[in-house]
Amino acid sequence: MTTDRDLARWRLRSQRLVEPAADAEEVVRTLLAVQAENPSQSAWAVATRTVAPNAEDLAAALADGRVLRTHVLRPTWHYVHADDAAWLLELTAPRVLPTTDQQLRPIADDLPRLGDLIVALLAETPDRTRAEVAAALVERGEHLTGQQLMLLLAHLELHLLVCSGAPRDGEHTYALFADRVPAPRRLDREEALAELAVRYLSAHAPATDRDLAYWATLTLTDARRGIAAAGERLASFEHDGRTFWHAADVAAVAAASAPPEAPAAHLLQVLDEMYRGYQDSRWMLDADGVVSREREATIGMALVDAQLVAAMRRTLTAKAAVFEIRPHRPLAEAEIGAVHDAAARYAAFLGLEPRVEFASAG
């Protein structure tokens, strides 16, 4: 009998947390998009899915434009492959734009002029930081609050006018979308819905139609249209009263849901695709129901054998990466060892020494 834990283990493999990808570009292309609100934490979300986590890997992909960091899918940043940026934005932006534009209502009459000005600034000098864009606007007599400028840039990203430029000393910059993606791949709406369904339900398998709708800010009707258009490329099964979808060519469920040999544990942010990549069936991560459903109390989590066993908070010092672990239940010795191993991998990626501090379970 297939259990929630089995499905969570399957997701580890689909998402490349076990059987990792060759590099950051492959991770982003496989997952279609990776939430990237926090650049430092999200860099690990990509790196931990590669065979040899290295900060320079994603940095190089962002620098040369193979991977973009831009607003897409939902009103927040995601890493997305340059080949997928245009069609994914064209499909999902219409349902995201109302969120940003509502907050821009106080300057709504000025949006076309301000947008044209920013496009001209980036055409003249690309790879500008947000502070540099703000300073250039002030020089031209335009004074925006930091929040207004952030929302305006997101508005321009959603219209495929602006996207990430080459990072400078690790800082996000902006450039023209047309310069970074000179030959965008475009799909008609039906093709895009099918492509989205296949790519999401393969890389996040198994997942439901409601998970897909949440992830891509689609109506449930459009999510189901995409699944239907995918045809034989997807397959499904019933579990606990819901229909779960996956790529049709996946091996037997028993093989996909086998316990991971290594790594057994993962230290991730709650923005990670293993958590934020679902809504309808998110709690496959907690088959025993030990985690509070009330609210997200921390920004990190510890997974062992695909289960959310503890909250995690990461603090960096000059020499160490400190991981404060607050278990949701008492941990076995093997689970504690797996968490230490995960901390060592994460700290090595950061070039720091690992330090793990366990609080009492509760």
Tell me roughly what share of residues is in helical segments: 40-55%
Strand order of the largest sheet: 8-9-10-11-12
Please outline the major beta sheet: 5 strands, mixed
Number of helices: 15
Low-pLDDT segments? none
Mean pLDDT, to the nearest integer, reads: 95
Taken from the alpha-carbon principal axes, the silhouette is globular
* Alpha carbon gap, first and last residue: 30 Å
- Give helix and strand order, one letter per element, not per position: HHEHHEEHHHHEEHHHHEEHEHEEEHE
Instruction: Give the beta-strand count.
Output: 12
| CA-atom Rg in angstroms | 21 Å
The proportion of residues in beta strands is: 15-25%
SS content category = alpha+beta
Q: Which helices and strands, and how do they pair?
A:
Blueprint (H helix, E strand, L loop, with lengths): L3 H11 L9 H8 L1 E3 L3 H9 L7 H9 L3 E5 L5 E5 H22 L7 H14 L5 H10 L6 H13 L3 E3 L9 E3 H4 L8 H15 L5 H8 L3 H11 L3 E6 L2 E6 L5 H4 L8 E5 L3 H4 L23 E5 L2 E10 L3 E8 L5 H18 L2 E6 L4
Parallel strand pairs: 11-12
Antiparallel strand pairs: 1-3, 2-3, 4-5, 6-7, 8-9, 9-10, 10-11
